């Protein structure tokens, strides 16, 4: 037995010694010796496993495992290896349609959480009109199980693969909201048509809601603005809430609708020169039209490019909540066997030279959506699990205000919850059953945007706004002063 162990060890040592031979050759060619050494070692271990492991191992399995390990070592939630199945479906959300439940999943790092809690999947934003949206899943909810499988061991890409599937099939989720509210949701997969734009007039204000940035977003937005022009609009609300991004060229084109000749965004990598993207076409919205932009934690990536450009140009006033904070650029590269990978290759900077990665964009005026208190969580958990609101709307899809008030009275006898909260939950459920462009009655952020125009406060508010770079510098100075004191 010991003789066999010695022989095996000797073989392994000889193999690794042989792996060092290419290093000398690489040095003679002026290559990075350390990189060449590790590349050779990887190949040596790959070959040794195939020859000597007690079980036969497919080359593909070893390759995918090695690739996954390399990308996990980066501890970058936006960089990952993509097996062939994931590579094939990657373009769905920016190009066409797919079978799924309509939830954007926030990327997560392979590293454990600093607080030691399970690293469950976080919903970045639901897509409007999809099963996940109709079920009432919100930005910031956690998916803790998919078909009984705990999600703390899944990567974001693995989770997306489990959520997608054949239209008409079910997927069962366990949702956690806040710290203690948990409720099951069964979603039936559908062909998800990637939505783009919704628009309407609110009085003399044009309301333009961008749901994602696809190749069609700019064209649909032009149609919306032309309709506003025909209606004689005097102000504009651009709603980027729960828009998790999309294509860079679409974001640049949308920004160009509101100004021309300006820098929209620049990108900088470690090895290449920076790239600058300008608003080169003629603007469609006159500078005399005041603009309010609505943002929240579900606004990310391309949404942040647009919001950041309009803020730095002094073109718009931002209302809502701090954005997600994705200020990096990824490239997707295919490999010859059908798989591929996406890699963070650069960071982007707003016109004032601010990078918002991991910090997001703060609103000029913070208006938070109403939330429930910790005291409400137990009652809400029972209410969500009872399904009573969903059942009520299924039986009465278009309740009047009086009917809603009557149902609120019934619920308030069984649940110790504020009547305003119950009314909002019922209206949210109702609005999810049909496409509603806006709900001015319960949307406090939209209400504030409208009031800014109707009360004539826009110009005064704009006088006190600052660029993102200035805000970041002031924050850094405050933190430095706090540490010094």
Walkthrough of the structure:
With 485 residues, the chain is an alpha+beta fold. The protein has 4 domains: 56 residues, no CATH class; 97 residues, PDZ domain (Pdz3 Domain, Roll); 172 residues, Alpha-Beta Complex (2-enoyl-CoA Hydratase, Chain A, domain 1), CATH 3.90.226; 73 residues. Helices cover 41% and strands 21% of the residues. Strands 3, 4, 5, 6, 7 and 8 form a 6-stranded antiparallel sheet that branches. Strands 10-11-12-15-16-19 form a 6-stranded mixed sheet, sandwiched between helices. The longest helix has 20 residues. The radius of gyration is 26 Å and the shape is globular. The N terminus is likely disordered.
For the record, the count of structural domains works out to 4
CATH topology name of the largest domain, in short, is 2-enoyl-CoA Hydratase, Chain A, domain 1
Q: Pairing-aware structural class of the strands and helices? A: alpha+beta
Please give the count of helices. 18
Termini Cα gap: 68 Å
- Given the C-alpha coordinates, what overall shape results? globular
The main sheet comes to:
6 strands, antiparallel
Strand content: 15-25%
Averaged pLDDT: 88
Q: Any idea what the CATH architecture of the largest domain is?
A: Alpha-Beta Complex
- Annotation, overall tally of beta strands: 19
Query: What's the gyration radius in Å?
Result: 26 Å
Which CATH class of the largest domain applies here? Answer: Alpha Beta
For the record, what is the CATH homologous superfamily label of the largest domain?
2-enoyl-CoA Hydratase, Chain A, domain 1
Low-confidence stretches: 1-30
Percent in helix: 40-55%
């Amino acid at each position: 037995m010991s003789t066999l162990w010695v022989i095996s060890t000797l073989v392994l040592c000889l193999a690794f010694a042989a792996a060092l031979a290419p290093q000398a050759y690489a040095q003679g060619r002026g290559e990075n010796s350390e990189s060449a050494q590790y590349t050779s070692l990887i190949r040596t271990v790959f070959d040794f496993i195939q020859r000597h492991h007690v079980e036969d191992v497919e080359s593909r399995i070893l390759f995918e495992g090695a690739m996954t390990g390399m990308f996990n070592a980066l501890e970058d939630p936006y960089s990952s290896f993509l097996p062939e199945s994931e590579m094939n479906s990657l373009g769905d959300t920016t190009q066409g349609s797919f079978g799924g439940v309509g939830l954007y999943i926030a990327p997560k790092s392979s590293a454990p959480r600093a607080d030691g809690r399970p690293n469950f999947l976080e919903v970045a934003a639901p897509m409007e009109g999809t099963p996940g949206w109709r079920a009432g899943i919100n930005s910031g909810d956690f998916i803790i199980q998919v078909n009984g499988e705990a999600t703390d061991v899944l990567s974001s890409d693995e989770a997306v693969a489990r959520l997608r599937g054949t239209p008409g099939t079910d997927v069962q989720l366990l949702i956690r909201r806040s710290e203690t509210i948990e409720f099951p949701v069964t979603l039936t997969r559908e062909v998800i048509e990637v939505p783009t734009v919704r628009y309407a007039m609110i009085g003399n204000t044009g309301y333009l809601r961008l749901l994602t940035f696809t190749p069609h977003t700019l064209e649909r937005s032009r149609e919306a603005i032309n309709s506003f022009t025909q209606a004689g609009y005097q102000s504009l609300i651009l709603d980027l809430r729960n828009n998790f991004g999309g294509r860079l060229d679409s974001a640049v084109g949308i920004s160009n609708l509101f100004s021309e000749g300006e820098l929209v965004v620049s990108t900088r990598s470690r090895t290449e020169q920076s790239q600058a993207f300008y608003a080169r076409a003629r603007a469609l919205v006159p500078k005399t039209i005041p603009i309010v932009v609505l943002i929240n934690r579900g606004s990310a990536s391309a949404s942040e490019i647009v919001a950041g450009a309009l803020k730095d140009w002094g073109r718009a006033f931002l209302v809502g909540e701090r954005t997600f904070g994705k200020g990096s650029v990824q490239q997707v590269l295919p490999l010859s066997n059908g798989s591929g990978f996406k890699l963070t290759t650069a960071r982007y900077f707003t016109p004032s030279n601010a990078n918002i990665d991991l910090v997001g964009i703060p609103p000029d005026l913070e208006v938070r959506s109403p939330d429930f208190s910790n005291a409400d969580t137990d009652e809400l958990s029972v209410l969500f699990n009872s399904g009573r609101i969903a059942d009520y709307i299924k039986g009465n899809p278009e309740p009047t205000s009086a009917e809603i008030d009557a149902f609120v009275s019934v619920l308030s006898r069984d649940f110790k919850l504020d009547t305003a909260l119950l009314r909002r939950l019922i209206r949210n459920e109702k609005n999810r059953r049909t496409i509603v462009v806006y709900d001015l009655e319960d949307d406090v952020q939209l209400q504030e945007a409208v009031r800014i125009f109707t009360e004539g406060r826009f110009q005064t508010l704009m006088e006190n706004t600052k660029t993102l770079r200035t805000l970041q510098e002031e924050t850094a100075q405050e933190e430095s002063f706090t540490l010094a004191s």
